[in-house]
Specification:
CATH superfamily of the largest domain: DNA methylase specificity domains
Largest sheet: 4 strands, antiparallel
CATH architecture of the largest domain: Alpha-Beta Complex
CATH class of the largest domain: Alpha Beta
CATH topology of the largest domain: Adenine-n6-DNA-methyltransferase TaqI, Chain A, domain 2
Number of domains: 3
Oligomer: single chain
Shape: globular
Structural class: alpha+beta
Number of strands: 21
Amino acid sequence: MDDTSALYASVFANCPATWRVIPFQDAVEFREGPGILAKDFRTNGVPLLRLRNIERPFVDLEGCNFLDPDMVRAKWDHFRIEPGDLLVSTSGTLGRVSIATEPSQGSIPYTGIIRMRPAGPHVDAGFIRYFLTSPLFQLQAEASAAGSVLKHFGPTHLREMSFPVPPVEEQCAIAAVLGALDDKIEQNRSTARVLERLARATFRAWFVDFEPVKAKAEGATSFPSVPQEVFDALPMRLVDSEIGQVPEGWEVKAIASIATFLNGLALQKHPPRGDGHDLRVIKIAQLRKGSTEGADWANCEVPEKYVVHDRELIFSWSGTLEAKFWFGGAGALNQHLFKVTSKQFPSWFCLHWIRQHLPWFRSIAASKATTMGHIKRGHLQEAQVVLPPALVLKAADGVFSATYDLHAALMIESRQLGAMRDLLLPSLLSGKVRVSTDREHNDG
């Protein structure tokens, strides 16, 4: 058996006899975006999609470039995308697919992005989407790397691949099962983002702009969402401090004084031992995407204080400089990340004060004061926070903790749903697990 036959057998051996296996190009119409020079970019016009625009499940136009409409009509009109098209990066994570929506209609994908759509009515777009995330696609893509780690794939590789074709009704049923899980995941994440925005706005109003105190100074007798007994206990005026005006009686201290900032370990890649105690390494990349999927394994017994669990606060002091609650399951904290803990103040209070200072931290990291693109512990002593009396903090904790309890539940449920989807996907896409179709249900 030659290599091609062996690969075919390993990938498609379990497909039901009623499924056809055809060349990828007979199932999917695909075209990589054109190479366009920066001199052709405009400040408005036809959107030009870059990799950052296809990082989410649906195409996001924020931050895209633009092209002159007349130039598009003359040179690139045939590259335009339509709602429902699938956009795939030719590098990075295999199987990451973004779906074109109505607002992105007519956009042009840049080189490095492949537009895909069904080649005919015998193939469902949703089924293509999930095929691209399945081992059936990934094994073929990795085989195209010719023995090396695949860094890039493109139309040439796709022409060498095969595609399973169940009856179209079954394709739609498979996509519907997996799509229901993805829809719930996206709904949860969307709600979580709304809760985050609400919490940020409330924190700024109460603890940065001091709106309740200002309202009381102007004669108000209450303030929305502030318990009456807390509002009654607020000071009547603002007073000068080293960072500007703050409520009378509130303290100004360094952010380093409200929490412990534990730097991670220098953890190297190491094969898992398989004893059930292995931990993935949480680096900056894992913090950004909120998952340890595909991350390195820790290379030693990790002391408990360096283990990160769900809902713990992480702050990257290098690279992107961001602060987040972690929801990727237990992992080992790598260097360049702080695990932020506090015995005196709620974690949400620490989170929002770090975020309040992120613009300043980033300007420090970008300045010539450091050549490594990071902040130093001394900057945690310079960054100032305003501390309210215990009564105010306790009342605020009732509001913020409830918000973040719901936020955490949504994020953890999304991770569990994603694990269920990933477990089902290879079995559904290979035909090992079958789903009934509407036609079969009606026939029964």
